[in-house]
Specification:
Blueprint lengths: L1 H19 L3 E3 L2 H25 L1 H6 L4 H16 L3 E3 L2 H22 L1
């Protein structure tokens, strides 16, 4: 049950971010659910590998390269999900921030 609630929170965060940030397009609620699932899978399996590979660059940039890894994960999701598009690096970066903040705030009520 908790997994479904987290999925709904992520979907809501994605829909809100798409409405707030120009350059982010989510075609429908179904697309937002699929994006939430794909981002969850990518963050679980691919992101740790990318973080380990990018560790030297992340250390050299004092952690700022971590944001580039997040944007790369979001770009992979746009490639995998039709109906979800982002028009550039800055909208993808803002999308990641907004989704993280909204999911974190709403997730606090779940715990």
């Amino acid at each position: 049950m908790r997994l479904i609630i987290r999925l709904l929170i992520s979907t809501l965060a994605i829909l809100l971010a798409a409405n707030l940030i120009p350059g982010v397009v989510v075609a429908s609620t179904t697309t937002a659910i699929i994006v939430a699932i794909v981002l969850g899978i990518l963050n679980t399996f691919l992101k740790p590998v990318l973080q380990i590979l990018a560790l030297p660059i992340t250390i050299m940039t004092l952690g700022l390269f971590y944001f580039v890894v997040n944007v790369f994960i979001i770009y992979i999701a746009t490639y995998l999900v039709s109906g979800f598009s982002i028009d550039g690096f800055i909208p993808a970066l803002l999308f990641g921030f907004v989704v993280s903040i909204i999911s974190g705030i709403l997730g606090m009520f779940l715990d």
